[in-house]
Amino acid sequence: MTSLLSQQSFAAPQGAGEWAGAARLCFRQGEEIYAQDETADLIYRLVRGAVRTSHLLADGRRQIGDFYYENDVIGVETGATHRFSAEALGDCEVLAIRRSGSTACETGRLERVIWQATTAELGRAQSHMLLLGRATACERVARFLLDIAARFRGEIVALPMSRQDMADYLGLTIETISRMLGRLQAAGLVEFLGARRYRIRRFSALSDMAAA
Amino acid sequence: MTSLLSQQSFAAPQGAGEWAGAARLCFRQGEEIYAQDETADLIYRLVRGAVRTSHLLADGRRQIGDFYYENDVIGVETGATHRFSAEALGDCEVLAIRRSGSTACETGRLERVIWQATTAELGRAQSHMLLLGRATACERVARFLLDIAARFRGEIVALPMSRQDMADYLGLTIETISRMLGRLQAAGLVEFLGARRYRIRRFSALSDMAAA
DNA sequence: CGGGGCCTTGATGCTGTTCAAATAGAGTGG
DNA sequence: CCACTCTATTTGAACAGCATCAAGGCCCCG
What we know:
Two copies of one chain form a homodimer.
Chain A: H1 4-11, E1 23-27, E2 32-34, E3 42-48, E4 51-56, E5 62-68, E6 73-74, E7 85-88, E8 92-98, H2 109-134, H3 137-149, E9 156-158, H4 163-170, H5 174-186, E10 190-192, E11 197-200, H6 203-209
Antiparallel strand pairs in A: 1-8, 2-7, 3-6, 3-8, 4-5, 4-7, 9-11, 10-11
Chain A binds a DNA duplex through helix 5.
């Protein structure tokens, strides 16, 4: 029942036609897929692995835009250049395709992909905004654990990113991240199996911690 | 020379055709244009006045999404309902039009408006994210003053929003806002004429305070 | 001229940061 | 397979920035 077919249809829910002429690229851990301020003439579809997008300020402060997984589209921008860079969190594989020069909204298949990716980006950016604006450290971490868990089927969730990545995503320090994770575990809401794997123990209580 | 015609063409830079069948609505200060969680079947074009969008959490914490001025489009959403509500900051006037049910990306004139508004939203949400994630109180306030000023021709800038609105936009308290404004004024970077009008005195120095 | 909301200013406290050090864990070579 | 090393993570203590609490002043508008 859990055949290759159903697995394939899960891996390419919108049909693979849009990505027919795309180039297949591989990146190793930490490698840059595209750079901040680079011209944004390619868009990418993540086939395997995980990616972070990050924005670096002049003085070294960093903000992680988001984390991406299989089937997510990255590289779509509102301007001519990339506001964020994209780096592979582990070894990963992407399809890259040139966006046909048209920045406008058209009926073509690729434009539909761009539209969907843009609205998805907007939704996630808005959620991220709410998180950064008015949430306590504990709420941010709780929401993060829930969000990551929501992307997986299995009960045990893997964290492909470092504590520093989490900190730069949540607008906190690694020490605070570590302390809040410890607190949530001590309260029995989550259980860690090493630093990079966890399981949610009390979902509703964790949701309460995450507030709205 | 500064005729009605040129004023009109400024008021409708992309042609008014898209808004031909739109209803004209007026709101008084503080009135709600649309509510959080309400079905998002209308989009709006702000003709006169200023608007804030805000998201309320269960415990009363509030996050301002953004501030909007003449010719801005509001009400475009990533889902079926409004994630933010919209309120008039002063008396204002909007055009409202039903988005034709099609959530997809099409070549129609209205779809083009929606596309442009969506990308504008994404860009602003990303900037806002960077501001909330890794900026100090002083940097946030400096950037805010620059951003608002960038929307006006004149040298003297009016603030249509209260200190509470600014605070909920920047993720700070009104007291901190007030102190930072005082500090920037004491440093000679800006000059206030009453609480709601200011002038930028040293633009480059203010830009430096705002960091990236 | 007076009322009331908005804004500013001051004193104190708490959350999260910073600095510092210990520990755990992953990768490597013997 | 184990010891070793290097990095990532955790933990602790002191500090700083912003929040909170509390007055006081300004300004707008009747």
